[in-house]
Amino acid sequence: MAQQPQTQAVRPKTAYTKGDMVLFRDAERFWLGLPGHTFVGRVERSWRHAHTGKVLYDLVELSGNRHRAGIDPDYMRLLPPADAMRDIDAAPLSEPDPGAMTPAAVAWLRQHLAQDAAALPVLR
Q1: Nearest CA to 15 among 38, 47, 40, 39?
Q2: Domain extents for the chain?
Q3: What is the pLDDT of residues 68-114, one digit of tens each?
Q4: Rounded to 5, what percent of the chain is helix, strand, coil?
């Protein structure tokens, strides 16, 4: 019987920049089954470890505004803006019931309608 080749997850090679939103998992807490192991953070800075030469990151945890230093990028994933804005981009604008739209889409529409009410076409 032929042995099946083992598959591995491919780790993305990403350089994060200040202001990027990322998902971070504290591997130690995760493997110990402890709560609070995964959070969303904003990249504040990057720096190179003096002994290993590995690039590490300092993050601000968005849920608690806590600073986390020396984060290994192997446990970070970029949160693309397109994912955060998908509900607005896909809002059912022709839907007669505004409640069918997500709250983010409604908030965006209200903001832009209030700013640019004069530019709206006249309803017939």
Answers
A1: 47
A2: 21-79, 82-116
A3: 999 999 999 999 988 888 877 776 666 666 666 667 777 777 777 77
A4: 30, 25, 45
